[in-house]
Amino acid sequence: MKQRHGDIPLEYICRLLGKTVQTYYYHIRYQKRVAENELVILERVKSIRVHLPGAGVPKLRHMISLDAGLAARCPGRDTMYELLRSHHLLLLRRGRRGPTTTDSRHRYKKYPNLVREQVTNRPNELWVSDISAPRRCNSSCCYCTGWFLTGSCNTAPPNREVGWKGVAKFYRVLTAR
């Protein structure tokens, strides 16, 4: 305001707005403090993102609050979101991934279904097996890698399960028990 109206005394402008001159200077100092604080936070965010490029706002806030020199400067959640949004540092939101199923239109060799029209008359005449890899739960177990390989073997007519096994690593061999 003072820059635009340099010929009008500051006391007169403040009196018109119902503020004191002290409030005007306090606001200027406050804006400088906020700008310096934002620069420090943005530098820290960029240094964290060098090592953890996928770190979102909650993790960034937690890591900044752990720094001894920045704990008092750490902004709130909404302020942090606004700060990162204004400087284009927010991560792109990924859509929710639905269930993944087998891709039957893959480019690899497809073997014919030999038992499609076969009729079975007694148990153990035809066995059907399958291997699948469902996603693991997001539990707190320390060995979760995200996938769990399962294999099962069933008899065709009564659909009785003959055996199954599940493993956490793909290099292990699945054998029915």
Please give a structural write-up.
Mean pLDDT is 77; it is low at 140-144. This protein has 4 helices and 3 strands. The chain is rod-shaped. Among the domains are: 10-86, no CATH class; 127-167. With 177 residues, it is an alpha+beta fold. Helices cover 33% and strands 11% of the residues. The termini are far apart. Strands 1-2-3 form a 3-stranded antiparallel sheet, with no helix packed on it.
Q: What is the CA–CA distance across the termini?
A: 82 Å
Radius of gyration: 32 Å
User: Which parts are unreliable, with pLDDT below 50 for 5 consecutive residues or more?
Assistant: 140-144
Average pLDDT: 77
The tally of beta strands, per DSSP, is: 3
Largest sheet descriptor: 3 strands, antiparallel
Give, in order, the helices and strands: HHHHEEE
- What is the beta-strand fraction? 5-15%
Helix content: 25-40%
Q: Structural class of the helices, strands and pairings?
A: alpha+beta
- Strand order in the sheet with the most strands: 1-2-3
Separate helix tally:
4
Shape: rod-shaped
In short:
With 177 residues, this protein is of the alpha+beta class.
Secondary-structure blueprint of this entry?
Layout: H1 10-17, H2 21-51, H3 57-66, H4 77-86, E1 127-132, E2 149-155, E3 161-167
Antiparallel strand pairs: 1-2, 2-3
Can you give keywords for this protein?
177 residues, alpha+beta, 3-stranded antiparallel beta sheet, 3 strands
